[in-house]
């Protein structure tokens, strides 16, 4: 979607799938020069500590590659689980839905263009 890579996670993530996603996204950001990554997790009902760390890791990798990551569609139970696990997802921006996520990425692009 323009300068944004959109990832929709439709199944509960296994460790290998999560690692493959992380590698694929890093490659795609580098190849496309995307300035934003939106990860839609609305279909996930369960997130364990590994997947939570993977989301934070993707955000850090994207940031190093000059892209902003936004996680959208988080279910309330997933948010509660992440807090109970002590995972704050530092550096990961969140939005309630894709529309708000796109707005957040657009504002991040505008802010970074003013810094340069």
Model description:
This protein has 116 residues and is α/β, with parallel strands linked by helices. It has a single domain (4-115), classed as 2-Layer Sandwich (Transcription Regulator spoIIAA). Helices cover 53% and strands 16% of the residues. It has four helices and four strands. Helix 1 (15-32) runs parallel beside helix 2 (49-64). The longest helix has 18 residues, at 15-32.
List keywords for this structure.
116 residues; alpha/beta; Transcription Regulator spoIIAA; four-stranded parallel beta sheet; 4 strands; 53% helix; 16% strand
Question: What is the domain total for the residues?
Answer: 1
Count of extended strands: 4
Give the amount of beta strand, in percent. 15-25%
CATH-level-2 architecture: 2-Layer Sandwich
Output the CATH homologous superfamily. STAS domain
In what order do the strands lie side by side in the largest sheet?
1-2-3-4
Q: Please state the CA-atom Rg, rounded to the nearest Å.
A: 13 Å
Please tell me the overall pLDDT: 89
The rounded distance between the terminal residues' Cα atoms is: 24 Å
State the helix count: 4
CATH class (first level) name: Alpha Beta
Structural class: alpha/beta
Order of helices and strands: EHEHEHEH
CATH topology: Transcription Regulator spoIIAA
Q: Based on Cα principal axes, name the global outline.
A: globular
Main sheet: strands, sense, barrel: 4 strands, parallel
User: Helix proportion of residues, in percent?
Assistant: 40-55%
Spans of at least 5 consecutive residues with low confidence: none
């Amino acid at each position: 979607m323009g300068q944004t890579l959109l990832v929709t996670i439709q199944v509960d993530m296994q460790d290998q799938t999560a690692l493959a996603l992380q590698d694929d996204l890093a490659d795609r950001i580098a190849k496309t020069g995307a300035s934003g990554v939106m990860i839609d997790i609305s279909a996930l009902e369960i997130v364990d500590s590994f997947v939570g760390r993977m989301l934070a890791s993707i955000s850090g990798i994207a940031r190093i590659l000059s892209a902003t990551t936004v996680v959208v569609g988080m279910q309330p139970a997933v948010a509660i689980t992440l807090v109970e696990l002590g995972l704050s997802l530092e550096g990961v921006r969140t939005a309630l839905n894709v529309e708000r996520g796109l707005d957040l990425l657009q504002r991040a692009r505008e802010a970074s263009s003013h810094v340069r």
